[in-house]
Design brief:
6 strands, mainly beta, Thrombin, subunit H
Length: 94
C-alpha cells in the first residue's frame, strides 16, 4: 500500500524552473497538478514568498510534471485564489 501512495504523490507534483537559458534543470518552485493533458497542465501553488510573483502570464518556464522529463512550457494564465494560493495554466511547448 505504501508504494502506491508514493507513486501517486510523485505524479501530482510539478517542479518549475524559471531560468530557461540554463541547460541544467534547477527547479525553484513546486506546485500541485490539478489538471493535466497532452497539451498542458493546471497547477496550484502556495505563495511562500514574493519570489512567486515572478511567475506570470506569457512567461516561458521549464516544468517537470510527475515522472515526465523537464520540458519548456508557457504560462497561459494565472489566477489568484486567495492571499496564499494561486493557480497557473501551462501550455507545453515540446
Amino acid at each position: 500500500m505504501q508504494k502506491d501512495l508514493e507513486v501517486r504523490t510523485v505524479e501530482v507534483v510539478a517542479h518549475i524552473d524559471i531560468n530557461t537559458e540554463d541547460e541544467n534543470f534547477e527547479p525553484e518552485y513546486i506546485g500541485m497538478v490539478v489538471e493535466q493533458s497532452h497539451q498542458g497542465c493546471g497547477l496550484v501553488l502556495v505563495r511562500y514568498s514574493e519570489d512567486y510573483e515572478k511567475i506570470d502570464k506569457g512567461q516561458e518556464v521549464v516544468v517537470k510534471v510527475g515522472r515526465l522529463h523537464p520540458m519548456k512550457a508557457k504560462v497561459r494564465w494565472r489566477k489568484n485564489l486567495d492571499e496564499d494560493l494561486f493557480k497557473l495554466g501551462l501550455e507545453f511547448l515540446e
